[in-house]
Write a structure and sequence with these properties.
By secondary structure, the chain is an alpha+beta fold. It folds into five domains: about 250 residues, YVTN repeat-like/Quinoprotein amine dehydrogenase (Methylamine Dehydrogenase, Chain H, 7 Propeller); about 290 residues, Methylamine Dehydrogenase, Chain H (7 Propeller), CATH 2.130.10.10; about 100 residues, Immunoglobulin-like (Sandwich), CATH 2.60.40.10; about 100 residues; about 140 residues, Heat Shock Protein 90. About 20% of the residues lie in helices and about 40% in strands. The strands form 17 sheets. The protein has a six-stranded mixed β-sheet, covered by helices on one side. A five-stranded mixed β-sheet has the order 59-65-64-61-62, with no helix packed on it. Strand 55 and strand 56 form a beta hairpin. Helix 6 runs parallel beside helix 7. The longest helix has about 70 residues.
């Protein structure tokens, strides 16, 4: 009977259009979304939550938002890109089988390939499995292999075991037997092995999938059909009849809830549950009918790999209701009829009711069948009001049908909203103003009567009997037949008001189309926008469920938020909203909600929420259990200066340009759009950066140093339940940025500054010494020329004065000599001035100059002065000769002036190293240690010493009272070619 029922179900499904009577959200990923290729051949999940996808273009890691591809371009382990099989062992290791590339292991972030060197004689790996003892089994095109100590050994065809080719599936039954599907079925039980095959046809022997379900049944899928062994494997399974014939079974997978998913090559996907079969096919539900793999992740989503992409089926609280033919239908309004029906108007102008998850057309009287309906409303006495798109109003009651248009007094024929007053009269909002119907008569209101704007979107009668009128230009309030002037409403002037709701405490919630949500309560008007956490500032519909949650639809889907949380946010702007977002990831057929006509949604009598969309009526069950908090956040990769860094924590980076990119994620395979991120870099960021959905942090011009990066992930519905990950970063400096280099250059700079200061001081001292030297030289020159000349002239003039009385002739001679001395003194002064300005090397004979000096002094004083020269004279230069001449003159003049000598002798001795000058007198002498002449202090000796020091020579003075005085000078001279030694004596 079971087999007959299944066969009948299969025939029925093949003949009827495919439907989806279960609430699953559906998402498809293809190469345009990040997959390297659309062939999704294998699926697995690792303990960290990543989904791994084996494709014909490589191995892919998926976190719900981003695909990371591994192939031969970035991993040498991939000798072939086509990954055909995947398996996660108990220790968390991922195993991948490649078509021609061998077995690949991914462990601790590294890949390793196992090939012929490790014993794998065939590198086309089709199946991987780990038994209850932890032994890894590998099925290939060339037999079955077992891994031990990283080596692979072929099992079939050895030691009496039968050989099996083209191993496609391996599983273990509850008795511990290994079931290996390939060419036939190989059963391994300890050391015993049995091989079963089919005698029906060759195709029946090609086993593609083997699975044991939780009820103990064994399922065997071949390329010719599917068998179900209800009590497990006992005997030859191929003797059991096929429950489905003439189909190519490509994959089998049992979910945790006990559903068996069956992949069929070329015929789509089937779900077997409690004896019933549901079929899903392309293009409505599958991206392609060639199903290659099936897998259920830890979040209860079923993943289906096909030849045209990857499909994710997730249990959803949302479902889309449309007409029986399944065609998308754009919905205008959804209205909960007090009589129990849920009424729907569509953009095509038809009226429907929801019946058994289908929109069924409502039969209307002949007078209104041709009307283009916009909305519907049932008043307290049961009369049905129908608003139209340009055709006025139809009023359906037990008395019949009545039409109202502008001819009967309606302000405008385009109707958008109905509202019943407490007295049973009706308010009608239109594109051109407001009408009040009472007893068949209309009273109209427009801008001239105080209406903010004539285009009306929604009407609401509050608990105090006041009427709120939402328009495209603001909000108006009508009370006792007149509009009320409220300064708070002036803030809303110019805004498009599309939705109104009054809560149980009297607060008025105002939904706008572009300015977010407003709350009018207690004489205050609060605003909530995307800055406070709303996904969008456009609100199409607004209502509240029995739990106090506000529901809003908009262009981004549907959101649910606790009313208390919004009210608390008004008093604490720094708080965070806990939002539940429903989008296509939650089962919505579209995120595009409809609005602008009342009402664009409804709270059904059974608590379900309904919303109008462009593809049908959306139904959401608010009682659906929510998942836990945010998954652990993890840092995946760091790029330093656009180059991937070897990841570690702490992370040490070599010197660079300061560009850093940190990629992070929180693995959520289902609804990753609900995850939000924040990050903060200590020492760089002042506060947390709200990254939203972005999963990367960028930094530029980051200086070297130690940093600590924080990243937080949280779900929008639970922002306080966040997970955090930190990364310590040490970015090493360039050598020229190190402390020792800086210290070295600081020392160099200090040395340079000190050296510069020292040079500056030395220059100042040199300039001062030069000035002082010049002063001393001038003093010496004045002493040796002008003063000495003046002294001589003074003596001659004094002698002439005394001789005038004795001998006029002698007086005349003395005056002539005085005139001669004056001219000589002037010439010497001029010569000294000339020496200040010139440095000519032209000089007269030094010995001759000394001889002339001696003759002149001798003739003036009558004291014999002799000059003796030894050795060959050296060129002395103008300055040197002048200074030496002044030295000799000073020494002779001192002897004449102070010693009263009888004879004075001058010796000039030249050799290869120096010039030695001696001036010897036989006068009275003096105490040489006192540095004074017998006649008191004079500047002659001091000037002589300075001249000798300037010439780099040595000065010696020997004198004793009564024994004369000897002055000795030793002046170094430059080497020169020496002539024959000779001596010369001049008296």
């Amino acid at each position: 009977m079971l087999l007959s029922a299944l066969a009948a179900a299969w025939s029925l499904l093949a003949a009827t259009p495919p439907q989806e009577p279960f609430a699953y959200s559906r998402r498809v990923w293809q190469s345009s979304n990040g997959l390297p290729e659309d062939f999704a051949q294998a699926l697995a999940e690792t303990p960290d939550g990543y989904l791994w996808i084996g494709t014909s273009g490589g191995l892919v890691r998926f976190d719900g938002s981003r695909f990371v591809v591994f192939n031969h371009e970035n991993e040498p382990a991939f000798r072939d890109e086509s990954v055909y099989s995947l398996f996660t062992s108990k220790d968390g290791t991922l195993w991948a089988g490649a078509e021609g590339g061998g077995l690949i292991r991914y462990k601790n972030g590294a890949f390793r390939v196992f090939g012929t060197a490790e014993g794998l004689s065939n590198t086309f790996v089709r199946a991987i499995f780990e038994d209850r003892h932890g032994t890894l089994w590998v099925g290939t095109d060339g037999g079955l292999f077992r891994m031990q100590h990283d080596l692979l050994t072929r099992i079939d065809g050895r030691g009496g075991l039968p050989e099996i080719q083209n191993v496609n599936s391996i599983c273990e039954d509850r008795e511990g037997r290994l079931l290996v599907g390939g060419w036939g079925l190989l059963v391994l039980s300890g050391r015993q092995a049995t091989h079963y095959s089919s005698s029906a046809n060759l195709a029946d022997n090609a086993v593609r999938a083997v699975c044991e379900t939780s009820d103990g049944a064994v399922w065997i899928g071949t390329i010719s059909g599917l068998r179900r062994l209800e009590r497990g494997l006992h005997g030859n399974p191929f003797t059991a009849p096929r429950i489905i014939r003439d189909v190519n079974i490509s994959a089998l997978h049992e979910s945790r809830s006990g559903q068996l998913w069956i992949g069929i090559y070329g015929r789509g996907l089937m779900r077997y549950e409690a004896g019933g079969i549901t079929r899903l096919t392309a293009p409505s539900l599958l991206p392609h009918n060639n199903v290659l793999s099936i897998f259920e992740d830890g979040e209860d989503s079923v993943w289906v790999g096909t030849q045209g992409g990857l499909l994710q089926l997730s249990p959803s609280a949302a479902s889309t209701i449309t007409t029986a033919d399944g065609a998308p239908l754009s919905i205008n309004t959804i209205y909960q009829d007090p009589r129990g029906d849920l009424l729907v108007t569509a953009l095509n102008g038809r009226l429907y009711r929801v019946w058994r998850q289908t929109l069924v057309p409502v039969e209307l009287p002949a007078r209104v069948r041709t009307l283009t309906l916009r909305n519907v409303f049932r008043d307290s006495v049961g009369t049905l009001w129908l608003g139209t798109d340009g055709q006025g109003i139809a009023r359906l009651s037990s008395a019949g049908t009545v039409r109202y248009t502008m001819k009967q007094g309606l302000v405008n024929d385009f109707v958008r909203a109905f509202c019943e007053d407490g007295d049973g009269s009706m308010w009608i909002g239109t594109d051109g103003g407001l009408s009040h119907w009472r007893a068949g008569r209309f009273r109209n209101f427009d801008i001239g009567n105080g209406l903010t704007y004539r285009s009306i979107r929604a009407l609401l009668l509050d608990r105090d009997g006041g009427l709120w009128v939402a328009t495209d230009g603001g909000l108006s309030r009508l009370r006792s037949g007149a509009f009320v002037n409220d300064p708070l409403l002036d803030r809303l002037r110019g805004y498009k008001i599309w939705a109104l709701h009054q809560d149980s405490e009297g607060g008025l919630w105002i939904g706008t189309h572009g300015a977010g949500l407003f709350l009018l309560k207690g004489g205050k008007l609060e605003q909530f926008t995307t800055q406070q956490g709303l996904p969008s500032n456009k609100i199409c519909f607004l209502t509240e469920d029995l739990r106090g949650n506000l529901w809003m639809s908009g262009p981004g889907g549907v959101i649910s938020v606790a009313r208390r949380d919004l009210e608390a946010l008004a008093s604490n702007p720094s708080g965070q909203l806990a939002l539940r977002v429903y989008s296509t990831a939650e089962g919505l057929s579209t995120n595009q909600m409809m609005g602008g006509v009342q009402s664009a949604g409804a709270l059904a009598s059974n608590g379900a929420l309904w919303f109008a969309t462009t593809k049908g009526a959306i139904r959401i069950e608010p009682e659906a259990p929510d998942r836990g908090g945010a998954p652990p956040v993890r840092i995946e990769q760091v790029l330093a200066d656009d180059r991937p860094a070897t990841f570690s924590n702490p992370l040490v980076l070599p010197p660079g340009a300061g560009k850093l990119e940190i990629q992070y994620t929180a693995i959520r395979l289902r609804s990753p759009e609900r995850i939000r991120f924040k990050y903060w870099m200590e020492g760089i960021d002042r506060d947390w950066t709200d990254a939203g959905l972005r999963r990367v942090a960028y930094y530029t011009n980051l200086p070297h140093g130690d940093y600590r990066f924080h990243v937080i992930a949280y779900e929008m519905n639970a922002p306080r339940n966040a997970t955090e990950e930190t990364l310590n970063i040490e970015w090493r400096p360039h050598f020229y940025q190190t402390a020792w280099f800086m210290a070295f250059w600081a020392l160099m700079a200090a040395s340079a500054a000190g050296g510069g200061y020292w040079l500056h001081v030395r220059n100042i001292r040199r300039r001062f010494a030069a000035v002082l030297e010049e002063r001393n030289r001038l003093a010496r020159e004045m002493h040796d020329t002008l003063i000495q000349g003046c002294v001589g002239v003074s003596a001659l003039l004094e002698a002439a004065s005394q001789a005038q009385r004795v001998s006029p002739q002698m007086c005349s001679g003395l005056l002539d000599r005085a005139r001669t001395e004056i001219r000589a003194a002037v010439d010497e002064a001029r010569r000294a001035v000339w020496n200040l300005r010139h440095s000519s090397e032209d000089s007269q004979d030094f010995v001759g100059a000394v001889s002339q000096l001696a003759q002149r002094i001798s003739s003036e004083t009558g004291i014999p002065v002799s000059v003796k020269s030894l050795g060959a004279p050296h060129p002395l230069g103008v300055e040197g000769q002048w200074n030496l001449l002044m030295l000799v003159r000073e020494a002779v003049q001192n002897a004449v002036a102070h010693a009263a000598p009888r004879n004075i002798a001058v010796l000039l001795a030249f050799d290869s190293r120096c010039l030695r000058v001696e001036v010897q007198d036989d006068g009275c002498g003096f105490e040489a240690s006192s540095g004074r002449s017998p006649d008191g202090p004079h500047f002659g000796l001091t000037g002589m010493r300075e001249r000798v020091e300037k010439l780099g020579g040595e000065f010696h003075l020997n004198s004793y009272p009564g024994k004369g005085t000897q002055v000795r000078l030793s002046i170094p001279v430059a080497p020169s070619t020496l002539g024959n030694q000779h001596s010369q004596v001049i008296d």
